[in-house]
Specification:
Layout: H1 3-19, H2 22-83, H3 87-170, H4 173-186, E1 191-195, E2 198-199, H5 208-216, E3 221-222, E4 229-232, H6 233-238
Parallel strand pairs: 1-4
Antiparallel strand pairs: 1-2, 3-4
Helix pairs in contact: 1-3, 2-3
Length: 239
């Protein structure tokens, strides 16, 4: 087999091994992202409950202020009652008091209802806080595991990168540049095997002349259809 071809096959296999770790790194990152999303959802729910309680507290304060005004109104009506001289004025004052008392009843009922709602939401907040703390603990655990996992992967990749540097130094610059140019668009299929007289990069059948040249492996052969570097797999298995 052509020396340069053999070197490129080895380099291509090493590049594949390096890139094979990328899905593992992505999967590891997804674990952290997923855990963080759970925290975000829990925090959002907690924020919602707290906002609703705060909104109800504002309503309760408004009803309290309304009760204060209505109490003042009733106190003033007591004074007015002493000055009333006609039945018509008495009826008007009585109607005014009835309306004020209805408003007070409504305000007290709303205050009680909102306070009960807030008690329920306060219990939910406690549960939400506990869940959030649990998720944060889980996030820390996952982050540590992922960091350790990624450190091992990076260690393995570093060894492969060192090997790549060594392999690249032994390849003629012209040949290496040729390979890198193809790899820019073909990725890890820059160097592919030929099976059943077909390029396993584009899966197009090779003509007899090209196939014969690939079998001889005296020179670096490119697929006439896609331009990838070709080799016969059975040969490399024996090397």
């Amino acid at each position: 087999m052509n020396k340069h071809l053999q070197e490129l096959i080895e380099l291509a296999e090493n590049d594949k091994a390096i890139d094979s770790y990328n899905p593992q790194l992505e999967a590891a990152d997804k674990k952290v992202i997923k855990a963080q999303k759970k925290i975000d959802v829990a925090q959002k729910e907690l924020d919602r409950l707290q906002a609703e309680i705060a909104e109800n507290e504002v309503k309760i304060k408004t009803f309290d202020e309304q009760l204060g005004l209505l109490n003042e109104q009733l106190a003033q009506n007591i004074k007015k009652a002493k000055e009333i001289t006609t039945e018509k004025e008495m009826k008007a004052l009585s109607l005014e008091e009835d309306i004020a008392k209805e408003k007070m009843t409504f305000a007290n009922e709303e205050i009680e209802r909102l306070q009960e709602i807030n008690q329920t939401k306060s219990a939910l907040i406690q549960e939400a806080n506990e869940r959030l703390e649990t998720l944060k603990t889980e996030f820390e655990r996952i982050s540590q595991e992922v960091s350790a996992e990624k450190a091992e992967i990076e260690k393995s990749k570093a060894a492969l990168f060192a090997k790549r540097e060594a392999l690249s130094r032994n390849i003629e610059q012209k040949v290496l540049s040729f390979y890198e140019k193809i790899r820019n668009w073909a990725g890890n299929t820059a160097v592919v095997a030929v099976k059943k007289q077909a390029c396993y990069g584009c899966y197009m059948k090779l003509n007899d002349k090209t196939y014969s040249e690939v079998i001889k492996a005296e020179e670096i052969c490119n697929c006439p259809h896609c331009g990838r570097i070709l080799y016969i797999e059975s040969v490399t298995e024996e090397v």
